[in-house]
Amino acid sequence: LIPPPLREYIERGLSMLWERLFRSEDPYVEIRVDEEVAGNYHVNELYNQVGVYLGSLRSALNTHDRLKAYKQAESDPISFNVHDDESIDDSFDGVHVSWTHSVTEKGNAGNNNASTQKHFTLRFLKTNRQIILPAYLDHVSKDCADIERENSQRYIYTNNYGSWEESSFNHPSTFDSLALDSGMAERIKADLDAFSKGKSFYHTNGRAWKRGYLLYGPPGTGKSSLIAAIANYMLYDIYDLELTKVSDNAQLKSLLMWTRPKSVIVIEDIDCSVKMPNRDEADESSKEATDGDLFGKLTLSGLLNFVDGLWSCCGEERIFIFTTNFKERIDSALLRPGRMDMHILLSYCSFPAFKKLARNYLGIQDHPMFLELEKAMTQSSAQVTPAAIAEILIIHQHNPDSALSEVLAAFPRHADATIDDASTCKGHVDTTTGDECASEFSNRKSKRHYFRRGMSVFLRKSRHPDRSATSRSHSNYLEDVCKET
Ligand SMILES: Nc1ncnc2c1ncn2[C@@H]1O[C@H](COP(=O)(O)OP(=O)(O)OP(=O)(O)O)[C@@H](O)[C@H]1O
Ligand SMILES: [Mg+2]
């Protein structure tokens, strides 16, 4: 409970008193971290790490009146350091330590041009030696690595047959920008936190340090956005594995070998990426190998080994994420715990999720229409995706009243009667009009992607009271889509 500067003052006083009374040795340990490694004039990496670590400590802001502020790069946060020869306090495992930075004249000894020598001194009580050494210095070093990773560029890799191609990853999605059902973001973040701190847990229990998530739900409910949010939260790189560009199991294994730790490995639309023979068929295939039928192909067991076999332990701290619009189409072997530990349903927009979208897109926390909207959203059977709502909000971002009226119109009381009962359409129901769907299509991703996945679009009838007009506009719309494709 004693503030660190006062505690240090008391400790110093006691130590001087002790020395006077008993002429005993200094009760402190001092560790000096020089800028140069003595003798070979190389930069001491630990010196740089201590500088970064101390710059990130905010405690000095409350305790020191003279501080130095700096930024290492434009995009970096502002860091603070105390002046030379002033000490900065920290604590580790309940133990108080202090750091001082000093600059001393070097004399002529070095053959390096610099005339001064810089160093940090770490000071703590001898009685705490076991706690501080080397665990505290390891902690400083690891924290510095995390800070640097936070400020450094991250990458998304896509596979081109046997190799990964890299691009900068700058997706802005975060848990804060996502509209999810209440409590979902917190549950996922808690799971991620437990995973990132779980190295010893996984090792003690003989498990590979990895985690698997299955994200499922209709198109436009935020699966891809959630992947980006997870990568941003964890500060991980992303490996986006396109199974159609993997020729066989051996290639899959080699791609896995080239992934780095602290990464998210993603397979989107796992149900329809490739037609994979299942395990029985694959066993049969070994008999048929001479026919060349399934020989050298990608098989389900190859994929299972990718996620969960011996090879999956070759790198550590990795998260596997699969997405699908149709969970029921996925082989249950892929979904079992240990492969996919959490199954996360992303669904149509609920009122709490809508409120988040309204806050993010319109900057409003509340509105007189919210009550009516909540009623409409809970009572209507219309199923509207967050993507469709986001589109409406973007169009009317400067006019919250019209934005909310448009959203309200998407939730008619008897929604069933307003959705075409098109027997040929399967899957996702989208209550946006054809035009809105078209803009959603072109905004979101390539049409090829949609058609490859066999996505169906429902076109709403309510805006077209005359059924023949509806069919006409629908077929025109579909023709347009095909033409564009
Ligand atoms: N839950 C959400 N919260 C905020 N925005 C969302 C959400 N869902 C979708 N969106 C918006 O809709 C766009 C499309 O979402 P996203 O690509 O993440 O959907 P998806 O579920 O991956 O769809 P698909 O199954 O077609 O791949 C995003 O760019 C985002 O702006
Ligand atoms: Mg997606």
TrEMBL record:
GO terms for molecular function: ATP binding; ATP hydrolysis activity. Residues 209-350 form the AAA+ ATPase domain. Pfam families: AAA (PF00004), AAA_assoc (PF14363), AAA_lid_At3g28540 (PF25568). Residues 462-485 are annotated as: Disordered. InterPro entries: AAA+_ATPase, AAA_N_dom, At3g28540-like_C, ATPase_AAA_core, Mitochondrial_chaperone_BCS1, P-loop_NTPase. Its cofactor is Mg(2+). SUPFAM superfamilies: P-loop containing nucleoside triphosphate hydrolases (SSF52540). It comes from the Eukaryota. This is AAA+ ATPase domain-containing protein. It comes from Ceratopteris richardii.
